[in-house]
Structures are given as structure tokens and as C-alpha cells.
Design a protein that fits this description.
The chain is an alpha/beta fold and 132 residues long. The chain has one domain: STAS domain (Transcription Regulator spoIIAA, 2-Layer Sandwich), CATH 3.30.750.24. Helix content is 33%, strand content 27%. A six-stranded mixed sheet has the order 1-2-3-4-5-6. A hairpin with a 4-residue loop joins strand 1 and strand 2. The radius of gyration is 13 Å and the shape is globular. The termini are far apart.
Length: 132
């Protein structure tokens, strides 16, 4: 059952738990105006005990560098809590932001939330994440 965390005129963030993964679905652009909402949602979920997240970008038409910063900050928090993070459905433009930043290899990308949650989380979920 999907639960809304953030609801505004520019963005809706909701989550569902599937096979040990908390699928965080973002609907709307992730930019300078909305990126703080992503961090808020991740912090809330971590505080509630969720550790293994799938950031579902299937309904994100635009991700800018500030939005990428929110993803990176969220990843650091997840890692501090011993969790893991996967990303689904980045559009060509969004994937380009990850490539230009040099972070493409630091994340596991999946075509859909179903693909990302097929197997239960493992303890080495952020093994490729840079230590610095």
C-alpha cells in the first residue's frame, strides 16, 4: 500500500515496501525548489527504520545538479545507517547528470522498481559508493 510522505503542487513523494526494499516514488521535477523534499523524505524513512531504499525516478521528467546533490546527500545518510540505495528509471537526461558528475558507476540503476526489488537487500548495497 503506497503512503504519501510529501505532497505539494510541484511534487508528490510516496513509498511502499516490497521484498525488504522501501520504494520511494518521486513524481515531479527534482530541482532547486523541490530537492529539499527528497532529503526530508529520506530522513523521515530512515528515522522510521527503513534502511534499504529504491529511489524511483520513473515519474521525474527533470533532474538538475541541485537535485543530484539531494540524491548524494540522501545516499550518504543511507550509508551512515548501514543501508543501501538503488535508482530506477532515470530518463536519458537524468542519467546524463549522473554521468557528467562522475557518479554513474557509484549507483545501481534499474529499469523499473520491479527489477530493483526482485531480490531482497544485501549488506553490501553501497559497496561502489566512494569513501570520501
Amino acid at each position: 500500500m503506497r503512503t504519501n510522505i510529501i505532497r505539494s503542487e510541484r511534487m508528490v513523494v510516496s513509498f511502499d515496501v516490497v521484498n525488504g526494499w522501501t520504494v520511494l516514488e518521486v513524481d515531479g521535477e527534482i530541482d532547486v525548489h523541490t530537492s529539499p523534499r527528497i532529503r526530508e523524505a529520506v530522513i523521515k524513512l530512515l528515522d522510521e527504520g527503513h534502511r534499504h531504499l529504491v529511489l524511483d525516478l520513473c515519474f521525474v521528467p527533470f533532474l538538475d545538479s541541485v537535485g543530484l546533490g539531494a540524491v548524494v546527500a540522501s545516499t550518504k545518510r543511507v550509508r551512515e545507517h548501514g543501508g543501501s540505495l538503488r535508482i530506477t528509471c532515470p530518463s536519458g537526461r537524468s542519467r546524463k547528470v549522473f554521468e557528467i558528475s562522475g557518479l554513474h558507476d557509484a549507483y545501481e540503476f534499474y529499469d523499473s522498481p520491479e527489477d530493483a526489488t526482485l531480490y531482497a537487500p544485501s549488506v553490501d548495497g553501497l559497496v561502489h559508493w566512494p569513501d570520501h
